[in-house]
Amino acid sequence: MVHPKNEMISLDGGRLFVAVARQGSFVEAARRTGVPTSTVSRHIAELEEAIGVRLFQRTSRKVSLTSDGARLFERVGPLFDELSTALDAAADREEEPAGTLRVTAPVVTGASHVAPLLFEFSKAHPKVSVELELTNAIVDLVEDRFDLAFRIGPVEGADLVARRIWSFPYGLAASPRFVDDTLRGRTQITADELVQLPALVTSRRGAWRLRRKDGTRDDVRPSARILVNDPRVAVEGATRGLGIVCAPLEMLTARKNALTLLGVRGRTFEPREIFIVYPSRRLVPSRVRAAVDWFFRKSRRGGA
């Protein structure tokens, strides 16, 4: 646990800590921030001294976060992203956002949550043209020239700014007939049964994320009977008795007459966090910043 001391913690120290955490390298963090490597090292050492814990494990090959460092980064990373966005906004004198805003999002979330808010954004900013591509593939934002992406966390990429925007509860379900025939009427199963039952899954390498009562996490890899990259199709297959399905709770409850919700003893399903993501750069175009702010305002008010 991080125990702050009384020493003053500098803003530069925090900014450089975030840079090193993202880059996994003092040298690369120095290059990205334009600060000498020796200065980066000194600020990190001062920060560790000020808060009384070691933040990085350093070897001749790599730099990695300690558990204390990871907890600190999880809290302060988004704060520095917001500060950077605010400073860019103050520096940008463009009166009205304009140009083409290119956005990519997962198929289901994009259709149900992203698109409606983009339509509203387009009406509010008539000088901005919008291009929305719905795909479950992780695209390279810079290479494919996208301004924004919506992704299920955790988000990887040192050159990306990721800010959590939505959290969707997930659940487990099967058809009433499957419950009667395969589970013998039980709606509570064990974690061992979970990995053995036929399942409809949406990712070949994906895992279902569960959390124990003590807070530790289990990543369970189900026995895939059907693989399809659209959860709506997986849910439809489950209604036909083909197996169990893990999907957004709102999607399962919408089919309450055709599905029975299941529980896993001693476990709960982790919600899926959706992040709004954009390339990290010194100046963010006004159309991108306006869109990010728009989604944050709307999501906090329950929009879409």
Automatic annotation (TrEMBL):
The keyword DNA-binding applies. Residues 15-66 form the HTH lysR-type domain. Keywords: DNA-binding, Transcription, Transcription regulation. One of its GO terms (biological process) is DNA-templated transcription. The keyword Transcription applies. CDD domains: PBP2_CrgA_like (cd08422). GO terms for molecular function: DNA-binding transcription factor activity; sequence-specific DNA binding. Belongs to the LysR transcriptional regulatory family. PANTHER family: HTH-TYPE TRANSCRIPTIONAL ACTIVATOR TTDR-RELATED (PTHR30537:SF5), HTH-TYPE TRANSCRIPTIONAL REGULATOR (PTHR30537). This is Transcriptional regulator, LysR family. It comes from Labilithrix luteola. The lineage of its organism: Bacteria, Pseudomonadati, Myxococcota, Polyangia, Polyangiales.
